Amino acid sequence: MKVSVILPSYNEEARLPNALDKLIAYFSTTDLPYEIMVSADGCTDQTEKIASRYAAENQNITLVSFPERLGKGGGILNAAGVATGDILIMMDVDLSVPPEQIIPTIRKMEEEKADIIYGSRNLPESNILVESPLHRKLLGKAFNFLFRLLFGIDLHDTQCGFKAVRKEVLASLQRDLNIKGFAYDIDLAVEANRRGYKIVEMPVTWSHGAGSKVSALKQAIEMGHDLLTVWLEDKKREAQATDHRRYHDSIP
């Protein structure tokens, strides 16, 4: 079994070297076949040059670049399309969830026969080393409340950056995913749930990472818009499925 670690990286010249060094050091202590994919899109700093330098020195590192900004979800999907691993691990470049979570997650996926693992900061067993600012915590709780209310899916934290998904599962879902920004996680959960894939939520060790370049208010507005978009798409598919059933029910 091979693992592909996907690092969505938009102008991450300051944090990328540390992330790559720590991931390389972690995998050197395991016998797990792996690749680390730096997914850079629309970067205007040295992110791509740094990733290219690491890739030249380590055959397990790959740069997947795109000239225009794709968004976090778009960057992940762009890398997933060329990943060679059986399991895809998505991580934030600040490594807010440490690499040591990778093998326990794969083990959990196999034990539970799960198709997708959602890392969670909000389970009783979650280990929060550095809390996020209060306003981000409140926005996150409000967002999760709306998510659970609208979709009835029992996930307590959709927005933790650490996730694992079987490659063939993501490939089967990719065509129907509409959100390419920060809220792609909810689109993934809703579509996977609709298709009957097994989603398991897993507690993680997590630390708030300084250096975010995104305004919390701007991100909240964007994610609220995306939440509504996913809800409308979900209702449209429900309506289409209902009409389809009614048509067949009318046939003697």
Protein described:
With 252 residues, the chain is α/β, with parallel strands linked by helices. The chain has one domain (3-249): Spore Coat Polysaccharide Biosynthesis Protein SpsA, Chain A (Alpha-Beta Complex), CATH 3.90.550. It is built from eight helices and nine strands. The chain has helices spanning 16-27, 47-57, 72-80, 102-112, 134-151, 167-173, 184-195, 216-249; strands spanning 3-9, 34-41, 61-66, 87-90, 116-120, 127-130, 163-166, 199-203, 205-207. Strands 3-2-1-4-7-5-8 form a seven-stranded mixed beta sheet, sandwiched between helices. Strands 6-9 form a two-stranded parallel ribbon. β1 (3-9), α1 and β2 (34-41) form a beta-alpha-beta unit. The radius of gyration is 18 Å and the shape is globular. The relative contact order is 0.15.
Keywords, separated by commas or semicolons:
alpha/beta; 252 residues; globular; two-stranded parallel ribbon; seven-stranded mixed beta sheet; Spore Coat Polysaccharide Biosynthesis Protein SpsA, Chain A
What is the secondary structure topology, with strand pairs?
Layout lengths: L2 E7 L6 H12 L6 E8 L5 H11 L3 E6 L5 H9 L6 E4 L11 H11 L3 E5 L6 E4 L3 H18 L11 E4 H7 L10 H12 L3 E5 L1 E3 L8 H34 L3
Parallel strand pairs: 1-2, 1-4, 2-3, 5-8, 6-9
Antiparallel strand pairs: 4-7, 5-7
